[in-house]
Amino acid sequence: MMDIKVAFKSISDKVEGALMAQGFTRQKVSGGEGEMVSLFTSDTSAYSVVYFTDKQHMVLRHCAMTEEGPDNDWRTLATWMFDPETDTNKEADSIANDFVDNVSSSTAVKRMKVTKKKKKKSDDEGNADPLFLSKRFVNFFPELKEEIKAEEDTYYPFRGVTFTRKAIVPRVNDYINQKSVKEVQKLINLLNAQYDNGDADTRSIITIVILNSTPDDKRELINEYLSPELAKAWKAALKFKGKKVKPEKPKKKKTTMVERLQAKQENIGK
Description:
Layout: H1 4-20, E1 25-27, E2 35-41, E3 45-52, E4 57-66, E5 69-70, E6 75-81, H2 89-104, H3 106-119, H4 130-136, H5 144-154, H6 160-178, H7 181-197, H8 200-210, H9 219-225, H10 228-237, H11 257-269
Antiparallel strand pairs: 1-2, 2-3, 3-4, 4-5, 4-6
């Protein structure tokens, strides 16, 4: 048996030690009802350790920083069960070590580089990334919400090209083929807006992946509603249609909570 406040402090302190070396600072925050929270921030990133008392889950999360603070688009990196009635300092140490590995590994370094890269975009480039683009399609295809969540939970960074080809392109093509001109115009307006606001990866996905995959017999209809900037970009992108483009680098698959719990049980049994 272990006091949950002692366990939470022990885990948070070890995470803090690992993050301080990377330039993070611990912030004074208070958790909401039914949760305990510790927050660590840098100029570009934020990590939080959260314990949900009702579920008895100890969670490590990450998100990007804005000028106002964390953007609160939290991505769960690890989840462990911790029952203060039965678990001890041994289990707390196992969780702390796993969290420290998560914030110190090569994947964490890459995560920081990706976040910094987003923060240093040129003035003529938007901030919306491929994940943001994918979420905008939920208004047209509500079932995408769960598929996006599953992709986020499994891979980091978000596989924008792969996910778009698999989950968005077929739906967009069916939509263009089946819906009225007015409804198609709404979808094209979404592409116009996201192209204007998108980063370089997002713009490439819109032109080379989405628009280049649309039916040839719908090209005139689509062009009619494209913004001048996107129409010009698509015209240039059409030279890549049908050609093999360098594939997206494979992303490391995240370890699931079930796999982590199984590993925990195996370690306990040794």
